């Protein structure tokens, strides 16, 4: 577990307080702030147990929805069932690994982080308006990261090193800088941009300026990462969006 720097600790504290106090429609903002800006292995250790920054925000979020009853009225759908099934499978395979206890602890943390973020967003985002607001939050939060990745690529220096968790010098392959921002690897940074790209483009008919901002930030992250996987993901996501006008034929296209 990588210790939190004073600046990182301040960000976590602000995000935690915001998670507990802001209205439900803005609750995804501190959650996404922590997941996008904090390195995954940064946190504190208590009694031999690791509490990464993201997990602390998720705990605050679960406390919030429990106290406010914000899970009330949610219908348990097919994707929810798939998430629970995945979580059970991740825990069930632990006894069959070389170190069952360590695997169970690791997978348990993974399940908590993933399911925690998923079900919190399920509680916070219940309508199209909530989803549009979520996409706007992503566009705003990713813009500084995209700008930093451009600087990182040009100056070969990662500004997020001041928060801890990432090295000041980015990875260079075949003479090309692979910007990673606050993420563990350039591929992950580019993948975040590729995943957010269709979400931001979906804002086009609601908030055109925000759609342009988010799409530009997402595409910049993909390009700055200098990774082929995120680039292909971005291209396929745009292709999938274009299929919307032929959605009545998607079943045939799948076959």
The SS-based structural class is: mainly alpha
Strand order of the largest sheet: 1-2-3
What is the 3D shape? globular
Report low-confidence residues grouped into runs of 5 or more: none
Output the number of helix runs.
Answer: 10
What's the count of strands? 5
Order of helices and strands: EHHEEHHHHEEHHHH
Largest sheet: 3 strands, mixed
Strand % is 5-15%
Rg measurement, Å: 19 Å
Q: What is the share of helical residues?
A: 55-70%
Estimate the mean pLDDT confidence.
90
- Termini separation (Å)? 46 Å
Q: Would you give an account of this structure?
A:
The mean pLDDT is 90. The protein contains ten helices and five strands. The protein is globular and about 50 Å long. It is mainly alpha-helical. A three-stranded mixed sheet has the order 1-2-3. The N and C termini lie far apart (46 Å).
Brief account:
The protein contains ten helices and five strands.
Protein topology:
Blueprint: E1 2-3, H1 6-21, H2 28-37, E2 42-46, E3 49-52, H3 53-68, H4 78-92, H5 100-124, H6 128-155, E4 171-173, E5 176-178, H7 186-201, H8 208-225, H9 228-242, H10 250-254
Parallel strand pairs: 1-2
Antiparallel strand pairs: 2-3, 4-5
Characteristic key phrases:
255 residues; mainly alpha; three-stranded mixed beta sheet; two-stranded antiparallel ribbon; 10 helices
């Amino acid at each position: 577990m990588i210790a939190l720097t004073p600046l990182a600790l301040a960000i976590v504290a602000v995000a935690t307080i915001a998670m507990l106090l802001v209205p439900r429609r803005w609750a995804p903002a501190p959650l996404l702030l922590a997941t996008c800006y904090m390195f995954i292995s940064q946190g504190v250790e208590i009694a031999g147990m690791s509490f990464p920054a993201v997990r602390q925000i998720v705990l605050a979020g679960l406390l919030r929805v429990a106290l406010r009853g914000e899970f009330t009225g949610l219908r348990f759908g097919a994707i929810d069932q798939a998430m629970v099934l995945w979580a059970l499978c991740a825990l069930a395979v632990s006894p069959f690994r070389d170190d069952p206890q360590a695997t169970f602890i690791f997978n348990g943390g993974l399940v908590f982080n993933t399911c925690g973020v998923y079900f919190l967003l399920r509680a916070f985002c219940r309508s199209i308006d909530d989803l549009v607001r979520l996409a706007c939050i992503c566009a705003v939060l990713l813009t500084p990261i995209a700008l930093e990745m451009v600087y990182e690529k040009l100056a070969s220096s990662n500004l997020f090193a001041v928060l801890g968790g990432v090295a000041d010098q980015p990875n260079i392959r075949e003479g090309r800088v692979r910007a990673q921002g606050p993420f563990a690897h350039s591929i992950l940074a580019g993948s975040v941009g590729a995943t957010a790209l269709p979400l931001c483009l979906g804002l086009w008919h609601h908030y055109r300026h925000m759609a342009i901002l988010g799409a530009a930030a997402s595409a910049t992250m993909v390009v700055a990462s200098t990774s082929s996987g995120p680039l292909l993901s971005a291209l396929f996501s745009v292709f999938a969006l274009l299929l919307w006008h032929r959605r009545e034929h998607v079943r045939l296209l799948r076959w």
